[in-house]
């Protein structure tokens, strides 16, 4: 399906303590996307920053009529901030991207070209991650492979991040998904539609420092696994059956040795090993159940994914004009 030629693009840009990156981001957008300038809406989502991120964005608003600030009441996390941006973006196509310019704006030209050819989602595929640490590259590759192995209904493209162009109808589907534990890469893939990847080399950050650490990335990965697969629950049935079978075989071996060969089996050491092993297995299985139960606890309370303190800039002016 051919896309219309008269369109607007909404860039959704979550920001948390990114005061050093805002102006650099705007300058790069102006340089790399000059031919699309009159079609752009830049939607910054301030995720409860504790530095001058909000003030810097408000200063940009006074100079750039394309900019909107969606200011969240506190820090809700990047996935919630991105969701807030998707809910408020008004363009015919929406592009979530990072403010640190590790998502190269120049690639958006190719996104738009593929979108106009009929694709509903055009996502970036990282072919070179030398800007990341060796450990991050290793764990990221392992995560994608494991996720796709255990998820039966949703597959995410390997080395594809949040940087993508989504048609308005895809965005409307994403907005219908109400879960509080949000793994956006999975939600984007779950929506389906006609998709294609565009390879690119991931550069280093233009300014500032990453707000992610390995603990946050670990919890992020858990959200992905538990949100899109029941395999961690089912696997314990197979582990339990395997342990029971091995235990039965070992029991037959002990009985045979005692009855037919008169060999007495030492008791304390072997008994302690079995007890500690089975106790550890049981605690792990209870922990897995607890992960699912904790997420169910958050879901049934039905609290909003984010709370908006206020909207400023282009969208606020448009709303005032409509009410006038």
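Q: What amino acid sequence fits the structure above?
A:
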């Amino acid at each position: 399906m051919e896309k219309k030629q008269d369109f607007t693009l909404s860039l959704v840009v979550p920001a948390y303590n990114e005061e050093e990156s805002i102006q650099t981001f705007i300058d790069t957008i102006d340089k790399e996307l000059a031919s699309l300038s009159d079609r752009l809406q830049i939607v910054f989502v301030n995720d409860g920053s504790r530095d001058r991120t909000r003030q810097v964005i408000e200063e940009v608003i006074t100079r750039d009529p394309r900019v909107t600030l969606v200011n969240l009441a506190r820090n809700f996390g990047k996935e919630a901030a991105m969701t807030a941006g998707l809910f408020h973006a008004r363009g015919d196509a929406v592009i979530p991207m990072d403010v640190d310019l590790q998502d190269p704006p120049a690639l958006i030209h190719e996104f738009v070209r593929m979108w106009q050819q009929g694709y509903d989602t055009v996502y970036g595929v990282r072919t070179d991650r030398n800007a990341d640490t060796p450990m991050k590259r290793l764990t990221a590759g392992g995560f994608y492979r494991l996720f796709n192995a255990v998820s039966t209904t949703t597959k995410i493209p390997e080395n594809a991040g949040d940087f993508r162009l989504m048609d308005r109808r895809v965005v409307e589907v994403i907005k219908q998904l109400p879960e509080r534990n949000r793994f956006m890469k999975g939600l984007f893939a779950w929506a389906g539609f006609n998709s294609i990847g565009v390879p690119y080399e991931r550069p280093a950050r233009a300014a500032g420092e990453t707000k992610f650490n390995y603990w946050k990335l670990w919890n992020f990965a858990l959200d992905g696994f538990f949100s899109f697969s029941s395999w961690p629950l089912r696997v314990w049935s197979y582990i339990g059956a395997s342990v029971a079978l091995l235990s039965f075989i070992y029991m037959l071996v002990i009985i045979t040795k005692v009855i037919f060969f008169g060999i007495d089996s030492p008791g304390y050491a072997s008994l302690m090993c079995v007890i500690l092993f089975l106790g550890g297995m049981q605690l792990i299985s209870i922990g897995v159940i607890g992960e699912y139960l904790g997420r169910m606890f958050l879901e049934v309370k039905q609290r909003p994914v984010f709370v908006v303190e206020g909207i400023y800039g282009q969208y606020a002016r448009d709303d005032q004009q409509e009410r006038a």
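Q: And what stands out in the fold?
A: DSSP finds eleven helices and eight strands in the chain.
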